[in-house]
Amino acid sequence: MPRGGGGGFRGGGFSGGGFRGGGFRGGSAAFRMGGTRSSGTPFGRTGARRVTSRAPSGPYRHSYYRPRRRYYGYGYPWYRHWWYNPWWAGRWYRPWYYSPVYVGGGITIAIVLGLILLPLFGVAMWFPFSNVDANGTVNYRSTETLYFNEYWYEYEDINGGNDITYSIQSSHSLISFAIWDRPFESLPTTTKVGSDSDQLNLLQNQYEYVGYYLKPGSTINYDFNASGQVDFFIASGQALYEWNQGGSPSFYIDENDVLSDTGVHNVDSAKDYYVVWYNEGVSTVVVNFTIDYSAANVIDLSAADFYIEGADSIPENTFTVTSDGTWYFFVYFDPMLSPEESTTITFDVTYDTGITSIDRWIDIQPILIVLIVVVGIVIVVALLARRGQKKLKAKPSSKVAPAKSAIKKPSKVDTNCIRCGNSLRPDAHFCPSCGGKIEGRSTKESTIITPIKSKTCSFCRSKLTQDDKFCKWCGTEVEQAKP
Question: Of 72-86, 171-185, 334-348, where does mean pLDDT reach its minimum?
Fold first, then answer.
């Protein structure tokens, strides 16, 4: 693949010795400079759109899922009230519909919900809790962008003997593909060694490079000789880009005006390493080189049941799984195979799971039975709690209120006005003849005696003098001092 206007080509991975290219200093160039984890661990993504015989349901129906929070009074969410007994058992003095799990209302609600849920359960018999169709077939079809050292995966539960049908296209990088019954993280790593040797013809101001994506623990052994003086260095993608633009960055190894060199570079972080020869002289220089490298912690796809490495197009084919279980579909952008920053993959993978809707319904039945038992227990406990509230309310209180002193109000009977002698009605407050106020005499003869030395009458509250023996208004006796 041309780099910076010069000639170059992309090698075939470990057998081809990484990737190669070149150009003229100061010209346009593209070097992979994207960041990656220092450990070089691949990053996985999934979530392709499923295509089935019916519309997807649940949280995958839309491009995002936003849960809704329900509130029940006082601004508190429902889970703040779960321990509050009346919330689910209801108060004894309220109608049944204030407590949805109370047996009286629960039966009614169960009937109503049954009319709604029975049709849904009927649908579930054909499409139970899954996005697969009734025959157990599900298809993932999508176009995604993968960055280097990333992988895309999909998975399904499949019975042994069923098929996975796949096809993949990648533009414009080589990708690897695998089918396995374990997650990508379970793939082992290995150390791979390779060798790259060739002859370069460098024109004036021209450079050529060989690139490798290596992880900590890897090594680069180089040996070259040139017909004339050349600059030799090993650089990262960022440093090579700055140098090509006329800068003076730092290199891992930097040799100027040399005819030959031999050495080893030990890799301490995961990134791209570019081995570069540059001719800044006038005449053409011929360089013969040999590079032996050891790549540590390389993902070993050979452990998978089926794999293809270094391809940009995989035509439709079928793989038959060997055992029951969860089977994974991986597309891996191995940075050792291609120098690009990203690639666009288009894939179509169909899982014939062999698990029909009836099988899924049978598998889910134990869970439904447990849920029904739990609901029944809750209803019984709610009923007992409600009855307990009634008994507690009916039980007499142990605290006895203090008895109030009985004050008998004198019953009003027919009497005469103490002023004019006119006859009065029992409920009269004033005399209809003279207009005088009735002070409360309840009988024709007062039984109240005003205490000695009182200044007012105990019956009518009229003022008394010191020598009065009877009230001059109502005739109430005033207690006298004993001789």
Answer: 72-86
Q: What are phi and psi of 391, to 5 degrees?
A: -65, -40
How many residues can be counted in the chain? 483
Structure tokens at 380: 């019984």
Q: Specify the higher pLDDT residue, 258 or 456.
A: 258
Q: 82 pLDDT exceeds 80?
A: no
pLDDT surpasses 60 at 407: no
CA dist., res. 440 & res. 418, Å (int):
11
Rounded Cα distance, 437 and 379, in Å: 69
For the chain, how long is the longest CA-to-CA vector?
Answer: 158
Measured CA angle at 389 (ends 384, 394), to 5 deg: 125
Contacts of 407 (CB under 8 A, 6+ apart): none
Residue 215 near residue 297 (C-beta atoms within 8 A)? yes
Strand partners, 328: 155, 180
CB atoms within 10 A of CB 305: 16
Other C-beta atoms closer than 10 Å to the C-beta of 59 total: 10
| Nearest-angstrom CA–CA distance, 386 and 89 | 6
Q: Which domains does the chain have, with CATH numbers?
A: 19-31+189-299 (2.60.120.380), 45-49+132-188+301-355 (2.60.120.380), 77-126+358-392 (no CATH)
Q: Concatenated DSSP letters for 441-458?
A: --SSS---EEPTT-SB-T
What does pTM read for this prediction?
A: 0.60
